[in-house]
Amino acid sequence: MASDWFDISFFIDFLGVESEWKTALNIKTGKLSEETISARVLTHWQKFGLISDDRPQGKGWRKFSTSERIWIHCIINLRKFGLELNKIKKVKENLESYSEKDKTSTFPQLDFYLLYAMMSNTPTKLIVFADGESLLGRQIDIDVAKSFNNIKDDYISIDLNMLFNKGAKSNKIATTYINHTPTIGTEVERELTNSIKNKNIRSIKMTIDNGNEFHLDKEFILSSKQEMLMLLNKLQYGEATTIKKGNKRIYKVTEKTRIKK
Q1: Longest dimension (CA), the chain
Q2: Which of 167, 195, 211 corresponds to the end of one domain?
Q3: Which of 26, 35, 76 is nearest to 166 (CA)?
Q4: Has this prediction a pTM greater than 0.70?
């Protein structure tokens, strides 16, 4: 389910698609903030292939994009946990996957999850294993993967939302941190509780498919097409319908959620 969402959202809607938000993440706008990193360390990382340097003749102030600053903060955190540079380079190579297919993003998957977090306030993480293998994902997907024993080894978890906010002067991510304990009963109860609190949800329908998973259909009634499109961007699976009643239009979105039992 999460894989389907990623395949559609990343490969079809994001990769190679130009947008002002993606461009903004990749403009080299300023120096590093808050963290103290010597020029010597940056030069060492550059020679090792962890960061790039496009200054004319390597002189002048180094400027970094938002994505590059976040990556450098990731390096700092990984070094604090003692991860070797060759393994950190392996992480970088994973983040650079698909960059040849995207003219804007140096780290396409990183940019994708940052933009998703900005639109949805969802916690997103970079997790790194002892051998340098790494994964980017939403916290809920990581929790579900752990519950099915798809992730068995210990790992370092880096909160991308917090790193983004660390260097952001405005437009910070107002992350909604929820206890994503992957016990199914708790997850269903949480979905229902949150739905009841949402004033835009007019109806909730729950069915059980062969005793294997819960199906939740939540119907939202919205006042404008813009609100409908914004909501669709936040949902994993959503169906939109516009109903005309006289001179009035009603915008309806049905979110379809499946939770394995």
Answers
A1: 70
A2: 167
A3: 35
A4: no
